[in-house]
Fold these 4 entries.
Entry 1:
Amino acid sequence: MQSYKICGGKMLSGKIRVEGSKNALLPIIAASILVKDIVELENVTPLEDTYSMIDILRLLNVRVIYDHKSKMIIDSRNLVNKRISSEYTSKLRASYYFMGALLALYKSVKVGKPGGCDFSTRPIDLHLFAFENLGFDVVEEKNFYKFKKEREPKKIIEFSKVSVGATVNAILASVLNKGTTILKNVAMEPEIDDLIDFLNKCGSKIKREDNKIIVEGVYNLFGCKYKIMDDRIEAETYVVIGALLGRNLEIICDCKKYMKEFLLLMNKVGAHVKETSCGVIVNATKEIKEQSLIFNVYPGLPTDIQPVLTILFTKSKGESVFEDNVYPDRFSQVDELVSMGYNLHLVDKKLLIRRNNAYLDSVVSCKDLRGGMSLIVAAILSNKTTCIKNCEYISRGYYDVINKLKRVGAHIEKI
């Protein structure tokens, strides 16, 4: 169990380099088995989830070479269709992307139920809906889903609700189909477009028309070299930290074009954020203008940044209100933040945020990835000492976060 001790209230200055996107990387790793050739990926972040995906690849007899920094070679020429047990899939939510990839290749597949952060009820009914429309019968067992191809796929699949994961799985499962598959009411996240760009570089024929994706099936794919996009959520997290405690804190990234809604919000509330050719430079501001915010699917404010933004709005004089349309119960961090002295209240699945007048020495515990990161941000802002337990959650999405923050002046140590 990882624990951090943080003495907060220190100004931060220097440079922080943003890593490759976890949310783009994981579906691309799963998609690599469709190629049955050699794929070379760059900007691969060594996160816990990255290694969990590698474990599944190796289970499927895929050869993986990774330098534990950036470059990964995936050789799936000897891929074998094996049952993926819950021992592997329960470690992360993104394990379900192997469902779509394997269904594109085989008529019968058995995959364990996915795991991941438990901050909300997150069924995979839309994924199963896509697979059934693509011709598979689905049988749910205690820890598994069994799939078997029984009929021809439908040509048009329209989702009742926008889902990033279901959109990805529908793309993966239809890439090698005969004819054209049209996916309607799909997610518009840039990480999905990164997957599409990767697959097209491997020989697929996929194009997006706003919230519609058209997949023209191909017979096979071929290997390529591909660079994963930078992580916009990590970048936005460090921008928030800079708006709280930055002194010319420079966030180096190439994903600003995907952060438009977030950067507009920063400008609206009075944060001192300057865009540069290499990223953004952030300086702390004494006061943030209160807001009522709704977190939504892209291009709206991302749900993944909601817990961290909570801390920024404790710098407002008035009351701010947060509502999360993607995961309405995603407020696991609130009780822990309250114990640190933060003035927060949950009312009818809305988070009320008020300025707090005093912080407290405290011992708190991470319950999920993004909520855990919000505890680090809160502890950095606090002028007290905070011990944060269960920090292994944070390493699932933020690489080397402690050393990155220490290098710009934060007082953090592992205990």
Note: DSSP finds 13 helices and 23 strands in the chain.
Entry 2:
Amino acid sequence: MEQGKHEEGQATFDLVLFLWARRRLIGGVTLLGALVGLVVAFSITPLYKSEVVMFPAVTNSVSKSLLNEQSTGRDDILALGDEEDSEQLLQMLHSDRIRERVTDRFDLMTVYEIDTAHKHRMTELLEAFDDHITFERTKFSSVRVKVLDPEPLRAANIANFIADQVDTVWTEMARERASKGYRVVQNKVFELEESIRVMADSMRVLRQLGVHDYHTQTERYNEYLGAAIVKGDRRAIEEFEERFKVLALYGGPYVTLQDRMFNEIKRLSVLRMKLEQAQADMESDLPHKFVVNRAQPSDKKYMPIRWLVVLISMSSAFLLSLLLIVVQVNIRKIHNSHVL
């Protein structure tokens, strides 16, 4: 056992002597790596980080949240959204509308040094945008917007602008749909109001002909006719018989119009309520998120970490020197074997 330890120690000692004999190569390559890392570290453009953290709001319409009498837990406009709402907020942040507005507002083509005449400029812009601006969901179901930029103030402005545009774009999309729904309900209300107006005109004509309230008139006429028969008032009996003829002729249409008009007025009341709700949705500008932290300009660069770049470069150069030594030794062995 002692002999094995001795041989192992001897092998280690031989390896140290082997590397020590080639210390100049190892030191030279490592020093060269350090110089390269130093140059690279100071040539990389520093980037500053700014973040916005926000929670999604429950994604319900205003009419459902505020104007609906039968509300549920998800109808509270002050409630925080769940995981599904966070995913919807993330999808909105990745929308083309927001990316295009951020690009135009801050001239990202110039910031990212993209040639506007290049045929792949949009692809380069998308790659640069994804490298500098990221969106992620936290473990608390909030959403973080992280922006990296060479200028700390611009990084904060971009992050805050994106957070503000979420409500703008979301509202535009919802308003586009709500306005179409509003017009559909509004047209139905106009049609129903016109139909009720025509029926009211028809009933006015029937009233002029003597039919005011079919059921009440029939009841009263029967009462008065019975009294006239008991008295033997022939003139009154003939007069009520004539009135019954008018009721018999126009009573049916009057009752039909009255029932139909009653139902249409009920429908009109429901449609007007829906029109009110659609108008509330169309004019709504409620925010769709709760901003926890707005972005502030950073006073310390986020990247690069120069000492880490130099350390990685030195380590890579050191490993490269060892690889060169291994290759050199193997080449020598192969050459000696061919000579023998």
Note: The mean pLDDT is 75.
Entry 3:
Amino acid sequence: MPYKKRKGERKPTFAVLGAGHGGLAMAGHLALLGFRTRLWNRSRERTDRVSDRGGIELEGVIEGFGELELATDDIGAAIEGADVIMVVVPATGHRDIAKLCAPHLNRNQVIVLNPGRTFGALEFLQVLNNEEAPATPTLAEAQTFIYVSRHTDFAHARIMQIKNSVPLAAIPAHKTPEVLDIVRKALPEFVAATNVLETSLDNIGAIFHPALTILNAARIESTHGDFEYYLEGVSPSTARIVEAADMERVALGTALGVHLHTAREWLYLAYSSAGKTLYDATQGTPGYKGVRAPSTLTHRYILEDVPMSLVPMVSVGKLLGVKTPTLNALIHMASLIHARDFWAEGRTVQKLGLAGMSVEDIRMLAVRGVSK
């Protein structure tokens, strides 16, 4: 439904950075809702197609044509005067996006990472500080991406689902209500999380996706993903490995003073899937029926989730004395599969600016935006 402005209320202007599956869906939807919307992408080919059409055609649960104010490969033009900057690129691109944005930002803007993966907002803040950005806007990250979507061409997106509830947190944490106040004018599905440590560590996909893809590597290669990813890819033995990895994630949250749901608890909360074990709960999840496996191992479930989610968990765990043998093994196997060093590529405490910090330091950075 198009947004209806209340009397005396100013509608925010949005800039969406990224014209892939998610960025096209978000930009088209925001424009269709009646918000001034700009779209940026590094590749001019994509933005030229959108510009030629004048906007983005949407189908699926949202249908219509979202007329954009601007589609460009000039990031300065895209974000100038924008109230909210929605970053919708793979987490592997967050660092580059922060560098590109840094010279053009003002302190009154809001930047939302959709999603941040693990410690994305902390990384973005670190880059802005290193780049000596003239102003630091309010940074926020979502726990997961709000849409399930695919694009059919460069100016056409299909939205299959809009999630009912997406936790979001800002740095500093006391600004979360301010961010929600402006973002929820367009997307009321966003809800408050305690802080960015919660949004970073309570993303269950970071555990399920890499583990199941790696543990089913031979089957994915031999069938090109022609099997039920969760219902067939999760066996009693693979479920035990996933559960061990999940317990290490929860232990890291405990060390940082954040209460996290286990994967089994999350399945119950999200899908009412009960079970004494993670295997039982997974098999009892109707929503997983028909979900196929990735067709290749060259997939974001490894290429994004391992360096941007698992590596920072292990790196911060090592800093704080939290043992993560299962997560270590998954990262090592992913590196072997792709003949790449995901440890070097990933978000380490050095890249996050957390090296040498205590629990108190990290919590202060996440909650207040500054360390001691």
Note: Residues 14-201 form a domain with the Rossmann fold fold (CATH 3.40.50.720).
Entry 4:
Amino acid sequence: MSRWCQAGEAPGQEVVGSYHHEVLPAGPCSIHVFQTEFSQPGWRITTTLGKDGNFGVATLTDQVKGLPPAIGRPVAAINGDFFDTSEDYGGGPRDLQIFQGQLVRSPAGHACFWLDTFGKPHLTNLVSQCRILLANGQSIPFELNVARPADGCVLYTPVLGATTRTSGGTELILAGGSDDACQPLRAASHLTAKVREVKTGGNSPLRPGTMVLSLGPKLMARLPAIGAGAQLEIFTDTVPSLAGVETAIGGGPTLVRDGQAMHWSGINVRTPRAAIGWNQKQFFLVEVDGRQKSSAGMSFPEFANYLVKLGCENALNLDGGGSSTLWVQGKVVNSPSEGRERSSANAVVIVQQPRGTPEK
């Protein structure tokens, strides 16, 4: 069975894409697809964060509702990356995320999707070269908005929430080097920051216009004393570079590369799946229901092969299982395995932009 319908159509607006529901007898498998043409004007791809623009979890429906109206009218969305489920850092994305141009999570080594400044999609593993340069020339690598180890360095921004949620160590409250507010952090940037205050004990507040550099006690023992008024340089480089990138999200594994389905050894379990995919002309959001009599789900090989047949030349797996959700034109169109939407940390959203907005 197969059903297609147009999506994104409103008075005076173009059709942004189409929704397709297909049921395969083998399995059986219930598959939901939204696709759009890159040449279609007036749309863009963005990401969300789970809790009103901050780290946390919420249903896909609520994440879409929370997008600022200025971004455009949401047309379709799919759940995003795997995420931290710990008590202190629950809702933090597992890997890279750039949210409306703001770098909120540094690369962690998994496959990631990102759009360059020309709107071209990429599927790569990224290497973080994020680092702090001290006044004495010493360079310290850092991660962004994650749990800080005793011998590590983590930079926290207000997108994490009210506090750093750390325990112990030394924390440097940072502001712009000229007493200006620290700008929203972007990838491939070089900032000069001034230490406004030095705190010990952890769990420092995160306020708009500031960032907090948290240094673990084992690391701090190897560093020179850093006092209020000191200046630091912050580099947010990656390989490949993400200069100018407005949208990026992690996932994994890669399912399709250059038109070829990837291969896996060992046992591959059928389960609900979610993915984004594309070719030279089209972009796809794809969800497979599972753990139900009406749909068993797919294994990685089955899912990858289906995506190739669909026309994907590249495809990235997203969080699956109970998180697998596809939203189109104001409603969830699939059947989540838990019988309802499960909260997740982020999402990929296709929005229709207001007339006169520059092309993606």
Note: The mean pLDDT is 92.
